[in-house]
Amino acid sequence: MNDIELKYKTEIAKYLKSTPDDIFLYWKGRVALFAILKAMDIQKDNEVILPAFTCVVVPNAIKYLGAKPIYVDIDATTYNFDLNQLRSKITERTKVIICQNTFGLSSNVEKVVAIAKENNIKTIEDCTHGFGGTYQGKPNGSYCDAAFYSTQWNKPYSTGVGGFALVTDQNLKAKLEKVNADLEPATFKDKISLSTLYFVREKILTDRRYWRMVKLYRWLSKHKLVQGSSSGTEIESTEMPSHYFKGMSTTQMKKGITNLAKLGEMIPLRKANAAIYSEYLKSKGKTFVPTEQFQDHSFLKYPFLVKERETVMRIAEENKIPLGEWFCSPIHPVMEHFDQWDFCECEFPVATKYSSEMLNLPTDVKDTAPVLAFLDKIDGFLL
Ligand SMILES: *Cc1c(COP(=O)(O)O)cnc(C)c1O
């Protein structure tokens, strides 16, 4: 481990009340998940349970190993597992349950872990939204056998793209180290496209320019001029892209050290803004995140529901509000050929309904007044 790697892992470990030896770094969060699944010896015909309100790269990692994703619908108030349905989906082929920290809330993770233990099943937390927050006093991601985190530019803090795993079990750690021996190093070209991403994000992107920049970013990413989050292959098929299993570069670690230092002030800001949004939506009689969920929620985004989402997005664009579209599909951002991921929308009414109605408010803004003014404008669309 070189000095920069050790420093970065030490900073991460402080948040997780862990040690640098328990942290494993990767090019992206999805690669961390893939490595954990491999270290857990997931293979053909094994079943892996996950919520039907996820990002396509999660079932992809399962499919790349020849295993089968088994989805569970979400609960209408927490957007996490419906626990009764979770129990009903367990079979003798179930090897792993992946629970998810959704928007910063690891709701019911202790109950999921208890159900898994009763059935001798391993657990992984998709903690890509939850780094830095806690659940019932413990750091997010520390309840399961392993957790993976993302530092992609929309996540709690950014290294452009990036991710890591938290594993404390010695046995699993030894297996993970073996798996990691096959990681490819980032290439010179990767590092250039990362630097372009940093430049675009930090020097040019401001809220006022958000929509113009999102379009520019998508164009640059499509033409492979900047490091994109997902390649076309990952959204269109379940084939593993070439050079997928890649380690983290020193460029990312340095960025991580700098940006992680700013996270401390972000978490209270996100919570305070979420409280303002909740109060507003509640006063209008609209769907809001209930106060009893606030204690543990770190609110990476604030979910709200609308009808005619396209129109609302257009109004947001006109008003320069950086609105999020998570999850626009139960396996975001896939919009067709769901059967490739062994998914049928017909089976998951809550996730399907929410993925057609959900948008997210930014929680990292210094001033919520423009966001509230925007909500006033779309009053007729709010559900
Ligand atoms: C962002 C995200 C991932 C993947 O993280 P990457 O670092 O982009 O690979 C996985 N699951 C969820 C729910 C996410 O939002």
Your description of this structure?
This protein is of the alpha/beta class and 383 residues long. The strands form 4 sheets. The chain has a 7-stranded mixed beta sheet, with helices on both faces. A two-stranded parallel ribbon has the order 3-12. The chain is 41% helix and 14% strand. Pyridoxal-5'-phosphate (PLP) binds next to α2, β3 and α3.
Which hetero ligands occur in this complex?
A: pyridoxal-5'-phosphate
Looking at the structure, what is the overall shape? globular
The number of helices is: 14
Which regions are unreliable across 5 or more consecutive residues at pLDDT < 50? none
Counting copies of identical and different chains, the oligomeric state is single chain
Quick overview of this protein structure:
The chain is of the alpha/beta class and 383 residues long.
Annotate the secondary structure layout.
Blueprint: H1 3-16, E1 23-26, H2 29-39, E2 47-51, E3 54-55, H3 57-64, E4 68-72, H4 83-89, E5 94-100, H5 109-118, E6 122-126, E7 134-135, E8 138-139, E9 146-150, E10 163-167, H6 170-180, H7 188-204, H8 210-222, H9 232-236, H10 250-260, H11 263-283, E11 301-305, H12 309-318, E12 331-332, H13 349-357, E13 358-362, H14 369-377
Parallel strand pairs: 2-4, 2-5, 3-12, 5-6, 6-9
Antiparallel strand pairs: 1-10, 7-8, 9-10, 11-13
The structure holds pyridoxal-5'-phosphate.
